[in-house]
C-alpha cells in the first residue's frame, strides 16, 4: 500500500513518513560524521540538558565548510547556551507574551480576509501564494518594523536557501555541496545587509517597533552590537514565517486527505487547535534540530564521545511508536500528543503561541468563507525539496462546488 508521503512526493530520506521506524533510536552515520537521534525519549533527553547537549554547534563545523560563520552566529538565539541564551531570550520574550500575541488576532483576521478577498469569485487558488506565505511574513515584518511589501525580496532569498538545503556532512564536501552552501551564504548575506540598513535607520529614527527595541535594549548594562541585533532579527524573520507557511499548507492537506476529520472540524471550529497540534506531529515542518555534545554521554544505548554533532530528527520522534499510539494515523482526537514540533526546554519555540494563533485564525476564516474547499485532484501538491523540512510548497485548492 502506498503511503500519503509517497503519493505527495515527500523527500525520499524522510522514511518515518513511510511508516518505517529504525530499530536503533540513536545511530552514528559514518557518511556525515553525525549521530542521528530518532527516538522520542532520546530526543527529549537531548533537548532538556543544555549542559551536555550544547546548541553551539557551529564550533564543530570545519572552518573551510563555514567560512563566514562569525558573521551569522553573534546574537543567534538558536546557537546560544546558558547563561547568554537566557539574557537574550528574556529580552525578546517581552515581544511575545500571551497578551501581545492575543492582541494580534484582529490584525491576523483582517489580513486573512484581505488576502482571501483577492481570490474570492475564482474557481481555484494556490494556497501558499495566496495566503500561507504572505500572512505570516506580513505579521512578522510588521512586528519587526520592516516593510511587508519587501516580502517578494525575502521570498527570493529564502527560496534559494531552502532549495539548497541538503543533508550536510562534516566529513566530506562535494563540489555540489560547496556550490549549494556558497549560494545559501550569498542569500543569507542579502538578508543580513537588508536588515542591517533598517537597523541603522532605527538608530537615527527610533520607532514603535521591535527593531528599535532591540537597538535600545541593554543586557547587563550593555547595548547589543550591530551584528547581534541583525542576527537576532534575522532568526525572527526567518523562523517567523517559513515554518508557519508550512503549518497552514500541511494542515489543509491533512484535512483534505481525511474526510471524516475534515467534516468534524467544519462542523465545529473548536476542534481546530487539536487539529493543528496533530498536523504539527503528523507533518512536522522543522524536521531537524542540531546539538553538540560537551562531554561523553550515553544515549539510546550508544556511547557518544564529547564534541560529537547530533542531528535530532524531531519529525521522526513525532512518529515514535514507543510514544505515540498508531503514529501513522492522523488523529486530532488523540488524547496523548507530546509532540516535539516546537522543540522543548530552554529553546522551546518563542513563536509557538503566534504560530498557533495564525493557524487557528487563518484556517477558521478559510473554512468559513469556502465551505466547498478541497484539493484539485488534477494538480498534486508539491513539497519543499529539503530533507530537513516537511512543508507544502504548492497546494491548488478548488473553491466552488
Ligand atoms: C525555536 C519550530 C514558528 C521563532 C524553534 C524550535 C523549533 C521551532 C523546533 C527549537 C529549535 C532548537 O531547539 O534548536 C517552529 C515551528 C513553527 C515556528 C514548527 C511554526 C509552525 C515560529 C514563529 C516565530 C519563531 C512564528 C517568531 C515569531 C523562533 C525563535 C526560536 C525558535 C526565535 C529560538 C528560540 C530559542 O533558541 O530560545 N522553533 N517555529 N518560530 N522559534 Fe520557532
From TrEMBL:
Biochemical pathway? Antibiotic biosynthesis; vancomycin biosynthesis
Q: Which domain of life is it from?
A: Bacteria
Which controlled-vocabulary keywords does the entry list?
Answer: Heme, Iron, Metal-binding, Monooxygenase, Oxidoreductase
Q: Does the keyword Transferase apply?
A: no
Name the Pfam families on file: p450 (PF00067)
CDD domains documented for this protein: P450_EryK-like
Q: Which molecular function terms from Gene Ontology are attached? A: heme binding; iron ion binding; monooxygenase activity; oxidoreductase activity, acting on paired donors, with incorporation or reduction of molecular oxygen
SUPFAM superfamilies per UniProt: Cytochrome P450
Q: Which InterPro entries match?
A: Cyt_P450, Cyt_P450_B, Cyt_P450_CS, Cyt_P450_sf
Q: PANTHER family given for it?
A: CYTOCHROME P450 YJIB-RELATED, P450, PUTATIVE (EUROFUNG)-RELATED
- Protein family (similarity comment): Belongs to the cytochrome P450 family.
Describe the task this protein carries out.
Involved in the coupling of aromatic side chains of the heptapeptide of vancomycin.
Name of the protein:
Cytochrome P450
Species name: Amycolatopsis orientalis (Nocardia orientalis)
Amino acid at each position: 500500500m502506498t503511503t500519503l508521503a509517497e503519493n505527495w512526493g515527500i523527500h525520499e530520506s524522510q522514511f518515518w513518513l513511510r511508516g518505517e521506524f529504525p530499530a536503533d533510536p540513536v545511530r552514528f552515520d559514518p557518511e556525515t560524521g553525525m549521530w542521528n537521534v530518532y527516538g522520542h525519549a532520546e530526543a527529549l533527553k537531548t533537548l532538556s540538558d543544555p549542559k551536555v547537549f550544547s546548541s553551539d554547534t557551529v564550533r564543530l563545523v570545519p572552518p573551510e565548510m563555514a567560512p563566514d560563520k562569525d558573521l551569522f552566529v553573534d546574537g543567534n538565539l538558536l546557537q546560544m547556551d546558558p547563561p547568554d541564551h537566557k539574557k537574550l531570550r528574556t529580552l525578546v520574550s517581552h515581544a511575545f507574551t500571551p497578551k501581545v500575541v492575543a492582541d494580534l488576532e484582529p490584525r491576523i483576521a483582517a489580513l486573512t480576509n484581505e488576502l482571501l478577498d483577492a481570490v474570492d469569485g475564482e474557481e481555484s487558488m494556490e494556497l501558499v501564494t495566496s495566503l500561507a506565505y504572505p500572512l505570516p511574513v506580513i505579521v512578522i515584518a510588521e512586528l519587526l518594523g520592516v516593510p511587508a511589501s519587501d516580502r517578494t525580496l525575502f521570498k527570493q532569498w529564502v527560496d534559494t536557501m531552502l532549495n539548497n538545503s541538503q543533508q550536510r556532512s562534516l566529513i566530506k564536501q562535494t563540489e555540489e555541496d560547496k556550490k549549494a552552501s556558497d549560494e545559501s551564504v550569498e542569500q543569507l548575506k542579502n538578508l543580513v545587509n537588508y536588515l542591517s540598513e533598517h537597523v541603522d535607520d532605527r538608530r537615527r529614527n527610533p520607532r514603535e517597533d521591535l527593531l528599535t527595541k532591540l537597538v535600545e535594549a541593554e543586557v547587563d548594562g550593555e547595548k547589543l552590537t550591530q551584528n547581534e541585533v541583525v542576527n537576532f532579527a534575522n532568526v525572527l524573520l526567518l523562523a517567523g514565517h517559513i515554518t508557519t507557511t508550512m503549518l497552514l499548507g500541511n494542515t489543509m492537506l491533512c484535512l483534505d486527505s481525511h474526510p471524516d476529520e475534515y467534516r468534524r472540524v467544519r462542523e465545529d471550529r473548536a476542534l481546530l487547535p487539536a487539529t493543528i497540534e496533530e498536523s504539527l506531529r503528523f507533518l512536522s515542518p522543522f524536521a531537524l534540530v542540531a546539538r553538540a555534545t560537551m562531554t561523553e554521554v550515553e544515549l539510546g544505548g550508544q556511547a557518544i564521545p564529547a564534541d560529537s554533532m547530533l542531528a535530532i530528527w524531531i519529525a521522526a520522534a513525532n512518529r515514535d511508536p514507543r510514544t505515540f499510539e498508531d503514529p501513522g494515523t492522523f488523529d486530532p482526537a488523540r488524547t496523548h500528543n507530546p509532540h516535539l514540533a516546537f522543540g522543548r526546554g530552554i529553546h522551546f519555540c518563542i513563536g509557538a503561541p503566534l504560530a498557533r494563533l495564525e493557524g487557528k485564525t487563518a484556517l477558521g476564516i478559510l473554512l468559513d468563507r469556502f465551505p466547498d474547499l478541497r484539493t484539485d485532484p488534477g494538480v498534486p501538491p508539491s513539497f519543499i525539496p529539503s530533507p530537513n523540512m516537511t512543508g507544502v510548497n504548492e497546494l491548488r485548492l478548488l473553491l466552488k462546488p
